[in-house]
Design brief:
Layout (H helix, E strand, L loop, with lengths): L1 E2 L5 H23 L2 H32 L3 E5 L7 E5 L1 H24 L6 H20 L3 H19 L5 H32 L4 H6 L7 H19 L8 H7 L2 H26 L4 H24 L3 H25 L4 H33 L4 H4 L7 H14 L6 H20 L2 H29 L5 H9 L6 H19 L1 H12 L17 H26 E3 L5 E3 L9 H44 L1 H4 L5 H43 L9 H20 L2 H22 L2
Parallel strand pairs: 1-2
Antiparallel strand pairs: 2-3, 4-5
């Protein structure tokens, strides 16, 4: 064990370097200087690569030797911040930095010539530092602080395009992030008041059966709400299918591949440190997992938007991971199977979605569409693209020989063992639905593959092909081949690549280590894969071929969006309740209070009128009269006079500065201007802009989150 301030480098370097990158690109765009813009781009990619090197430097020791690196800074925020890098944190820190580096290189090509590149680079680097802070956090307060920074910084990914769809999706994303963060903070307060500590290592040493179980469960459910919101678990998954399609493809790869795993990391802490062996909590997680798997699978199966399909797929795959997190609490001697299966599937999914979303970005960047009808046949005659896409697609579908088969087999076997140990039909139903969801995965990935590579090219694709442009630079082809190769090699040689790492990563939890090595290619595991593939082929034939495919002519087929509106909880449930029902009810209640107060005021003044006859002679003393005749004019006069005084002062300062500049430079003043009037106009415009901004939902959510962070800092100082 050693403690070093160097551990701050992979966290602070991208955050501080992001400011340099932002200013460099902004200066280059303002001066139309390509050299400065190129310098900013190189800085952006270089910071990601150096951060990757740093995560390897601090992570290689814990991975090889089983030790850990610590950092404590008790002077910050009263309570201090604490970091710890052990096996799991080191592995996911390296994986996150690797995905960021690949995405950053891809973003330089994807966003070439677009506006707001500097903003995108800055918030990508800020999110990288915050995400590493989440994974390296050694206690819940540190985790929460970086969790909120990560959520706020990644908001700019979602709203990047600034069109109506992006703005709406960003509001949903921000609302879920803010509400989830608030509930998580309540859970943290309850947990500390009950246990007396928030340090993850100290919690693992406590006998939690001696504490208030009711309060512990309430705290756990609050934390599950917050972590589940970021992971995209049902019923808080609503942001994910909306945010991923509108964000730039490099950002979508990170949102799906890494940021959702930050939420899963928090859930693993709950199941591995707080609710160890709690079967009721495990049952709840399995129920959430089944709903998450099915809703995501159905959404992906019937959608005709390429990135929306991949986004719904992310929801479904989070359900698979939650199955492992739930069975961790239920199994007795075989918990290691669920623990390692969950962690392996988290890592696998990060690589799957890195490849798949960047492949989708290749299509979107060249064709400027996500519609399957318009991108049909894009992959025809492009063998490299087909191979890379096929590896990731078959891997996420759990086909034997690829890494997804290993992790899904472990998760499936953990469900089977739950049924054998407990005999509850509930687990058998969950296993059947697990296989059906796996079949859905194959069906929608097969749909994408056939449309891209085995359908007649659309008019848009033919027009692009005639330009004879390179659809992707060679350097990016080589870079994107690396995660695809890892998916293939990890699946063919799991005992050398996957199992050693998963055994070390499993030390994040307090479960017993594995007593045996998982045997991958057994008859039972292959049987499960065959059943799931058979279901997938049937679903492809009866749903994709028969339901969403329509032949409009002999040579042309179109795909129809059959996404069920009832599955969109945001439009069907949340928005009507939060934006219609609750405001109506609360508004009616407020109007009642207003009317009630007015009646009381009239009664009081009526009593005074009858008693003294005072109001007959001075009607201005009524409540309405006082407001109209005294308070409102005084406030307006004070405000206007203060504004005029400020305008006059600034006008004089600017005028004096112009005169001084003309004397120094010996250049005559070109035109005499009324600077006071110009300042007045500027203040009026700023006031109107402020009014427009403060009326928006995004402003309210951002202000609420800023207040939440301010409250946290205040409480941290008060509780020291």
């Amino acid at each position: 064990m050693k403690e070093t301030y160097g551990l701050l480098l992979p966290i602070l370097l991208p955050i501080l370097g992001g400011f340099v990158c932002r200013l460099t690109v902004a200066a280059g765009e303002k001066k139309e200087n390509k050299a400065l813009i190129r310098c900013g781009e190189v800085t952006f990619l270089g910071l990601c690569f150096v951060t990757l090197i740093l995560t390897v430097v601090f992570g290689i020791g814990p991975i090889q030797n089983g030790g850990h690196v610590l950092l404590s800074i008790p002077e910050i925020c009263g309570r201090g911040i604490y970091f710890r890098v052990d096996e799991f944190r080191a592995l996911y820190g390296i994986l996150a930095a690797f995905c960021w580096t690949v995405s950053a290189a891809f973003a330089l090509w994807y966003m070439k010539g677009e506006e707001n590149r500097g903003r995108y680079f800055f918030y990508t680097l800020l999110t990288l530092g915050a995400t590493l802070g989440v994974f390296y956090a050694a206690e819940f307060y540190t985790l929460f602080i970086f969790f909120e920074v990560m959520s706020l910084a990644s908001y700019l990914w979602v709203v990047h395009e600034e069109d109506a769809e992006a703005v709406r999706a960003s509001k949903t994303y921000l609302a879920v992030a803010v509400i989830g963060g608030l509930v998580m903070l309540m859970g943290i307060f309850l947990l500390e008041s009950n246990l007396g500590t928030l340090n993850l290592q100290d919690i693992a040493k406590l006998d939690l059966s001696l504490f208030n179980q009711k309060q512990l469960r309430v705290a756990g459910f609050c934390l599950l709400f917050g972590f589940g919101a970021k992971a995209g678990a049902f019923p808080l998954h609503i942001w994910l299918p909306k945010a991923h399609p509108v964000a730039p493809a490099p950002a979508s790869a990170l949102l799906s591949g890494i940021l959702t795993k930050a939420g899963m990391y928090g859930i693993l802490i709950l199941t591995g440190r707080v609710f160890v062996g709690d079967t009721h909590f495990g049952l709840l997680l399995v129920a959430i997992a089944v709903c998450t798997m099915l809703i995501g699978s159905v959404g992906a199966l019937v959608s005709v938007d390429m990135k929306h399909i991949l986004a719904c797929s992310s929801v479904s795959q989070i359900g698979f991971m939650l199955v492992g997190a739930g069975t961790m609490c239920i199994l007795d001697r075989e918990q290691w199977l669920a623990v390692q299966g969950t962690m392996l599937h988290m890592a696998n999914h990060s690589l799957f979605k890195l490849v798949l979303f960047l492949c989708a970005g290749i299509v979107v960047r060249n064709l400027h569409t996500r519609d399957l009808n318009k991108l049909r046949g894009f992959g025809v005659g492009r063998p490299w693209f087909m191979v890379v896409f096929l590896i990731a697609a078959l891997g996420i579908a759990g086909i034997p020989g690829l890494s997804g088969f290993v992790s899904k087999s472990m998760l499936h076997e953990s469900l089977v063992l739950c049924y054998h140990e407990n005999g509850l039909i509930y687990y058998k139903i969950a296993e059947i639905l697990f296989l059906i969801a796996g079949g859905c995965t194959l069906a929608y990935m097969l749909k994408l593959f056939l449309i891209l590579f085995f359908r007649k090219p659309s008019k848009e694709v033919e027009a692009f092909n005639q330009t004879k442009k390179a659809y992707l630079p060679l350097s990016l082809k080589i870079l994107l081949s690396i995660p695809a190769a890892v998916i293939y090699l990890a699946g063919t040689l799991p005992e050398y690549l996957m199992f050693p790492l998963s055994e070390r990563a499993a030390k994040l939890t307090e479960y017993m280590p594995a007593e045996e090595t998982f045997r991958t290619f057994t008859a039972e595991n292959v049987k499960g894969a065959v059943i799931s593939c058979t279901i997938g082929l049937l679903l492809w034939w009866f749903v994709v071929k028969k339901l969403i495919t329509k032949r409009v002519s002999k040579n042309e087929t179109v795909y129809i969006n059959r996404f069920p509106a009832k599955l969109d909880l945001e439009n069907a449930v949340y928005r009507p309740i939060l934006l219609t029902f609750l405001p109506t009810v609360c508004g009616a209640f407020c109007r009642f209070l207003e009317r009630f107060t007015e009646l009381i005021a009239k009664g009081v003044f009526g009593f005074l009128k009858r008693l003294f006859g005072l109001l007959d002679r001075t009607p201005e003393l009524t409540v309405t009269g006082l407001q109209r005749s005294v308070f409102k004019p005084v406030c307006e006069t004070t405000t206007l006079s203060a504004t005029r005084r400020l305008s006059r002062f600034l006008g004089k300062v600017i005028g004096a500065f112009v005169v001084l500049k003309s004397k120094i430079t010996r250049k005559p003043i070109a035109e005499q201007k009324n600077y006071t009037e110009l300042v007045n106009r500027g203040l009026d415009d700023a006031s109107e802009t402020a009014k427009l901004i403060t009326r928006s939902l995004s402003y309210g959510l951002l202000a609420f989150c800023a207040g939440l962070l301010a409250m946290l800092v205040y409480l941290l100082y008060c509780l020291q």
